[in-house]
Amino acid sequence: MSVLVGSIVMLGMLVIVPLGLGLVQDPALDRVRRLWPLFAVPGAVSLWLPRGDAATALALCYAAGTLLLASHAPRRLARLRSARPAEAAVLTALVTPSVAALALVAERFGHELFGFELGILALTVPHFHFAGFAAALVAGLVCRAQDGPAGRFAALSVPLGTLLVLVGYFTGERTELAGAVVLTAGMWTVALLTWRTVRVAGPDRVTRLLLAVSAGVLAATMVLALSWALGEATGLPHPTLTWMAATHGLGNALGFALCALLARRRLQDLTRTEGTTA
């Protein structure tokens, strides 16, 4: 696993997932969030060890944490009184880190799971932390805040696009391209709705800056994702996986996911403060 990919995955494990879980505002997830470092730290260490038993054992620790998180999805679904698009996105966010963890365990063990090369498995780990967990969660939060047709479209299309991309791993590039198209449409909608929030007078300057960066970076990185999927499906020239990791991957991790979640945290704190003073 390269230094760049390992660093992006560490950010997902140690920062993005626990930060995102706090934004769900579900008391049932508080215990998982408190325990998360016990799983994430061994997982992060496994990234820097040579493939083998030690790295696999530490990756399995992380996988246990992601399965604990995923187990809350059916419980949360059972508690819902009505199905809402925002909840579909949140449920997707709870499950996708376990997909990343499965790929991590196989890659650290040196096993080509389902016939996928180790390099593909290594890239699957950040993909399902950011295009899976972070993207779905942000889409759900945006839908909660702006529950109109556009918000509902984003909350439904992002999970659907993520699922199609996953299915495309097994069925071929055309399904993966369809998933990329659906996911891009959903994420561009998230960027548009985020930009609308930037123009509202309520958020402070720092929050507006974080929202603006997340929206702008997201719009650009999804063009790269679409061009790569199109090239894979048609044979047209497209960026290499190394270039995608350095641009699309890094941009989504820092510019979109981190900035978006920090902004949503600040917006929640602002709402909480206003409710206390009211």
From TrEMBL:
It comes from the Bacteria. The chain crosses the membrane at residues 6-23, 57-74, 86-106, 118-141, 153-171, 177-197, 209-230, 242-263. Keywords: Membrane, Transmembrane, Transmembrane helix. This is YndJ-like protein.
